[in-house]
Amino acid sequence: MSESVSSDPVLEAARRGDRSAQDQLLRRHVQAIHGLCRRITGDDSDALDATQDTLIAIVRGLSAFDGRSSFSTWVYRVATNVCLDELRRRKRRPVPFDPNTSSDDQFSSRSSISGHSGDSDEIGRIADHLLIDQALAQLAPEFRAAVVLRDMCQLDYAEIAEVLDIPIGTVRSRIARGRGQLADLIGHSDTGNSTAPSDRQRDRR
Q1: 70 lies in which domain range?
Q2: CATH number at residue 68
Q3: Smallest Cα–Cα separation from 40: which of 158, 164, 198?
Q4: Which residues are within 8 A (CB) of 132 and not within 5 positions of it... i.e. 6 or more apart?
Q5: What is the pTM of this model?
């Protein structure tokens, strides 16, 4: 994941102001940026705006990137800050979650998709994504960002601490609390532990 300035000629050229290199660099990361923005903002339109703002911020900040962290980690930091600023600025509120409603009503999109013909595995994956998206929207932004960076972006704890500018202990706490809330919202007791083996393998620092 590490990308030093000196070892990446495209990054080095982009930092010097080469527009072609900048375009190439942004194309490398735009899909990951949009995925992160969509998960954190919880809204397709906001995600597009945040993605665009992130790309602009990256180009403007390239000359300041010193290579002390990986470029990918720096990109995630820029994108996360843009998304959190967007949430604060627009004062978005999660859709009310009614615990007295049946799971079929809470996640009606899942049952609706399941009624269509097609590959059952693919339908299940789509339904699960929709269910997770809806549950993520209920989390406080600080928990949502930590969970997304860990479980969707596969960053380790040290990288997340750098992205969010918080201690590793706080990262662990936010991820644990966020996963616990997701487990309660989705209604599956194994949700909060689904990535535990990966945690042990990736927690290198």
Answers
A1: 1-93
A2: 1.10.1740.10
A3: 164
A4: 182, 186
A5: 0.72
